[in-house]
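Lecture 7 notes: from sequence to structure.

We start with a single chain of 412 residues. Read the sequence below before looking at the structure.
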Amino acid sequence: MEVAKRTNERTSMPVAADDPWLGCNPLDADFRNDPYPALQHLREHAPVSGTPIGLWRLARYDDVWRVLHDVPSGVRTTDGVLPFVDESLENQHRFMLEQDPPNHTRLRRLVSRAFTPRAVQRIRADVQRIVDECLDRVSGRGAMDVIADLALPVPSTVICEMIGVPLEDRDTFTIWTADATHGLAGEIAPPDVLARARAAGEHLGEYFRKLIAVRRTDLGDDLLSMLIRAEEEGDRLSGEELISQSIGLLIAGFETTIGLIGNGIRQLALHPAELARLKASPEMIETAVEECLRFDGPIGLTVRVLHADAEFGGHTLPKNTTIWALLASANRDPRAFPDPDRFDIARQPNDHLAFGGGAHFCLGSHLARLEAQCAIGSLVARFDALALVSEAVEWGPSLFRVPGTLPLTFSG
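Now the structure, written as tokens:
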């Protein structure tokens, strides 16, 4: 294959001259393993670029920030279509993240009280208890799988308790939730992956139908009970919306946080000087988690659809153009972050875009931060000599950047 003459001098990353993705195909295994050299090349040579499937990409921080905050846009076209997605399947694609106002506003308002900073701080002791129990179980081993032993059980236990999902069912739906994330890719995903996503959605729908039927007879103060009450009050929530919000909150509540905790611990292990810094100054955990989000966050892009013509980098993109806002690229843009490829747990300011922005800014951002601070901070404080068994990553089945396993050794 002919290789283009232009290469990234810092990374020496060759770009195939006939590659219409310019090295940034999100379904490519090499790109998933380390997307940052290719994203740097894209940011420098084609910061506003089309793709073979008709959508456009924004790679620079300022452009990504604009499409999230300033430019009229949403997740659907102006006539209400969700791009690249078959919406004929029952109870799928009705989650709030796949809606624009006024539906998005109405659905988000129903659950937002549970995710405010004050509400999240009220459960800090519970989150810390769950973290401590996880670390107690591995304390005498000298080794652990960061994902199975910490990054997965912490957020999944927390969201199960918040929603009112029996914890003993966690193993039942863990694979379903990971597979279901590929539904967000719609028809862009390979047929077999899309089939698994649809099947997972059906399994989760049936699971929640049964759980909701049981919960109707004994309502509590959990999120599921709150949504049932809203549905029973009439037009505030339909039965299909009830099931879809339940599924969406379960997936969003822990799938990406697994990646945040897992990738964060991995980066600390890969940067022993920063790990030692955090060990010596545990009060730095808040800025450390923000740097983990910026440097190697679990979500590499978010989708927006223009609701008016807009200009980016000399290109005028028409209304209803679908855009991938490349969060991972924006968060390594040297125009926004000095020395962006340096992992610095004290970095300030750190105005990363890992949680998106605008109306669709991540509802669970405060919860994810709290869980990561407790999990990563406690692991670093409690154990010494943290070391990866292998620097290679075995990725999980999720669409997101979430390791499937992460073996780690330690002492103490």
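The longest strand covers residues 3-8. Keep this in mind for problem set 3.
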